[in-house]
């Protein structure tokens, strides 16, 4: 992942969780004090990153989700909210200590809304509690008055905790670019639409490219999360909703989530006939999704630092949904190599760990995925997983199948 190339017939030597060296494969090997993983006709890539994960259901424990993530080749996760009864800092510590098998784990604190940030004093307390707890990020999920927003950025900067989350829709875009990352390309719909005219979509191509250039120059990262909005559209259509109910992946969905999303209790189903300024929801949301795809391509063309994330909400199934996100990126016209950058190099840069992760290089940690088909030819090939290497530990196809079996909910 340091260039759009494939190196053939290579040996990758791993010990103590790191890559010792990479060299041309010899015709014969004389030593026998190592384990050989045969990669003939296979493709080795860096481990994948799910940069917008949510643990939505505590019904089956975090172990359930971690199994699905690993089985899908995901070796880095950024959790995007801590809900009641959860302790994601503790999850990360258990993984680091070896008490829990899982990907590298990063987390925000609670999902912060305007009501929790009503004064500078409240903001100071929130930031200090985030630092004390050990969260990696502070997630802002709501609009703030300009004065309080600027105070939050200043306090967080001095405290060494990045502010990430939703764009500040009621302020000029420049203010949102002061965060480290924006978590949905959908947010730009509302940034451009100052008056909340639901039918308004900015389709001025030159303006969009100019905006993307400003985003790129600011250094902001963007996680498009296209797949979760695709599922919203699927809920609104009777035929696709029926297909969702029959999807074999439902076996990985906890019972409370099945009841919430795969029955008529799904709150989005009630929007089918609802109109927004004369436009029915299915039509409006379909237009939104197409715009989001279009702007994602513009961001990619403009070399904005994109990151892969799927939001794992509803029937955006944990682990599997990341691969669907890749497919949507490919559908909008992104090259497979550029898509792979969103899940390897870019997250490593974002997390400040590129020195030891993100590429397959000497001295880096051995977080890799062995595939049966070339992902540079078709990004769907990231799903042809033969084995996963997590910090030097090999999880072969049999072990990955066991993880999936354990994650089934009957």
Throw out a few tags for this protein.
410 residues; alpha/beta; TIM Barrel; 4-stranded antiparallel beta sheet; 15 helices; 15% strand
Folded structure, characterized:
This protein is α/β, with parallel strands linked by helices and 410 residues long. It has a domain at 48-110 and 183-355: TIM Barrel (Alpha-Beta Barrel), CATH 3.20.20. It is built from 15 helices and 16 strands. Strands 7-8-9-10-13 form a five-stranded parallel sheet. α3 packs parallel to α4 (146-159) and α8 runs antiparallel to α11.
Please provide a brief summary of the model.
The chain is of the alpha/beta class and 410 residues long. The protein is built from 15 helices and 16 strands.
**Main beta sheet, described?**
5 strands, parallel
Strand-residue proportion: 15-25%
User: What spatial order of strands do you see in the largest sheet?
Assistant: 7-8-9-10-13
Rounded average pLDDT: 95
Distance between the termini: 40 Å
**Tally of DSSP helical segments:** 15
| Sequence stretches where pLDDT stays below 50 over 5 or more residues | none
Produce the secondary structure layout.
Layout: E1 10-15, E2 18-24, E3 43-46, E4 48-53, H1 62-71, E5 74-79, H2 88-97, E6 104-107, H3 120-133, E7 138-140, H4 146-159, E8 163-165, H5 173-176, E9 181-182, H6 187-192, H7 205-218, E10 221-222, H8 226-236, H9 238-245, H10 255-261, E11 275-276, E12 279-280, H11 281-301, E13 305-306, H12 320-331, H13 336-343, H14 345-350, E14 368-371, E15 385-390, E16 393-395, H15 397-407
Parallel strand pairs: 4-5, 5-6, 7-8, 8-9, 9-10, 10-13
Antiparallel strand pairs: 1-2, 3-14, 11-12, 14-15, 15-16
């Amino acid at each position: 992942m340091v260039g759009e190339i494939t190196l053939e017939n290579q040996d990758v030597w791993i010990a103590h969780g790191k890559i010792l060296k990479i060299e041309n494969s010899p015709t014969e090997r004389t030593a026998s004090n190592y384990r050989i993983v045969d990669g003939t006709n296979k493709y080795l890539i860096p481990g994948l990153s799910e940069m917008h994960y949510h643990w939505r259901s505590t019904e089956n424990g975090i172990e359930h989700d971690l199994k699905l993530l690993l089985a899908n080749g995901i070796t880095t996760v950024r959790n995007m909210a801590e809900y009641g009864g959860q302790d994601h800092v503790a999850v990360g510590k258990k993984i680091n200590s070896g008490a829990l098998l899982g990907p590298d784990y990063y987390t925000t604190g609670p999902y912060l809304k305007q009501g929790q940030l009503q004064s500078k004093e409240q903001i100071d307390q929130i930031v200090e509690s985030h630092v004390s707890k050990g969260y990696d990020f502070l997630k802002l999920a709501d609009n703030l008055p300009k004065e309080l927003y600027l105070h939050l950025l200043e306090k967080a900067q001095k405290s060494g905790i990045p502010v990430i989350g939703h764009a500040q829709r009621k302020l000029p875009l420049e203010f949102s670019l002061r965060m480290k990352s924006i978590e949905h390309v959908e947010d730009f719909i509302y940034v451009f639409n100052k008056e909340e005219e639901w039918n308004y979509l900015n389709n001025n191509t030159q303006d969009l490219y100019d905006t993307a250039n400003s985003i790129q120059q600011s250094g902001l990262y963007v996680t498009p999360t296209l797949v979760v909005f695709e599922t919203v559209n699927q809920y609104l259509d009777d035929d696709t909703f029926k297909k969702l109910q029959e999807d074999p992946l439902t076996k990985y969905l906890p019972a409370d989530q099945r009841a919430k999303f795969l029955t008529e209790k799904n709150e989005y189903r009630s929007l089918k006939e609802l109109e927004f300024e004369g436009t029915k929801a299915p039509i409006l949301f379909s237009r939104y999704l197409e715009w989001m795809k279009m702007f994602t391509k513009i961001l990619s063309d403009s070399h904005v630092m994109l990151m892969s994330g799927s939001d794992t909400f509803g029937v955006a199934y944990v682990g599997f949904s990341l691969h669907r996100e890749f497919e949507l990126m490919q559908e909008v016209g992104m090259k497979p190599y550029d898509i792979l950058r969103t899940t390897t190099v870019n997250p490593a840069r974002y997390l400040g760990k590129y020195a030891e992760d993100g590429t397959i290089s000497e001295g880096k940690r051995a977080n890799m995925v062995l595939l049966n088909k070339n992902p540079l030819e078709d990004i769907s090939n990231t799903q042809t997983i033969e084995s996963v290497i997590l910090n030097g530990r090999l999880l072969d196809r049999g072990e990955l199948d066991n993880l999936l079996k354990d994650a089934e909910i009957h």
